[in-house]
Amino acid sequence: MDKNFYKSSGWYNSNDVMDILECGKTKAYEVIQQLNKKRAEKNLLVIKGRIPAVEFNNYLYGELRP
User: Is 45 buried (19+), middle (13-18) or exposed (0-12) by CB count in 10 A?
Assistant: First the structure.
Protein backbone atom coordinates (compact mmCIF):
# COMPACT_ATOMS: atom_id res chain seq x y z
CA MET A 1 0.00 0.00 0.00
CA ASP A 2 1.21 3.50 -0.80
CA LYS A 3 2.78 5.08 2.29
CA ASN A 4 0.93 8.36 1.58
CA PHE A 5 -2.46 6.60 1.52
CA TYR A 6 -3.60 7.80 4.93
CA LYS A 7 -2.54 11.38 4.32
CA SER A 8 -4.47 11.43 1.04
CA SER A 9 -7.44 9.71 2.68
CA GLY A 10 -7.58 12.17 5.58
CA TRP A 11 -6.12 10.00 8.35
CA TYR A 12 -2.97 10.61 10.41
CA ASN A 13 -0.79 7.87 11.84
CA SER A 14 1.73 8.07 14.67
CA ASN A 15 4.50 9.32 12.38
CA ASP A 16 2.31 12.21 11.22
CA VAL A 17 1.41 13.09 14.82
CA MET A 18 5.10 12.87 15.79
CA ASP A 19 6.02 15.34 13.05
CA ILE A 20 3.21 17.77 13.89
CA LEU A 21 3.75 17.74 17.68
CA GLU A 22 7.52 17.27 17.47
CA CYS A 23 7.32 14.50 20.04
CA GLY A 24 8.31 10.87 20.37
CA LYS A 25 6.41 7.84 19.16
CA THR A 26 5.14 6.96 22.64
CA LYS A 27 3.54 10.39 23.12
CA ALA A 28 2.06 10.28 19.60
CA TYR A 29 0.40 6.94 20.36
CA GLU A 30 -0.91 8.31 23.67
CA VAL A 31 -2.55 11.25 21.88
CA ILE A 32 -4.06 8.98 19.22
CA GLN A 33 -5.31 6.59 21.90
CA GLN A 34 -6.89 9.46 23.86
CA LEU A 35 -8.68 10.81 20.79
CA ASN A 36 -9.80 7.34 19.70
CA LYS A 37 -11.24 6.74 23.18
CA LYS A 38 -13.40 9.86 22.74
CA ARG A 39 -14.44 8.60 19.28
CA ALA A 40 -15.43 5.21 20.71
CA GLU A 41 -17.58 6.87 23.37
CA LYS A 42 -19.46 8.60 20.52
CA ASN A 43 -19.77 5.27 18.64
CA LEU A 44 -17.62 6.58 15.79
CA LEU A 45 -15.23 4.53 13.67
CA VAL A 46 -11.94 3.80 15.45
CA ILE A 47 -8.88 2.54 13.61
CA LYS A 48 -6.09 1.59 15.99
CA GLY A 49 -3.05 3.80 15.45
CA ARG A 50 -4.91 6.24 13.18
CA ILE A 51 -6.94 9.41 13.74
CA PRO A 52 -8.91 11.50 11.24
CA ALA A 53 -6.85 14.53 10.25
CA VAL A 54 -9.79 16.90 10.70
CA GLU A 55 -10.47 15.66 14.22
CA PHE A 56 -6.80 15.86 15.18
CA ASN A 57 -6.53 19.40 13.82
CA ASN A 58 -9.66 20.41 15.74
CA TYR A 59 -8.13 18.94 18.90
CA LEU A 60 -4.85 20.77 18.32
CA TYR A 61 -6.04 24.15 17.05
CA GLY A 62 -9.64 24.29 18.26
CA GLU A 63 -12.69 23.59 16.17
CA LEU A 64 -12.50 25.52 12.93
CA ARG A 65 -15.83 26.82 11.70
CA PRO A 66 -16.51 29.27 8.87
Answer: exposed
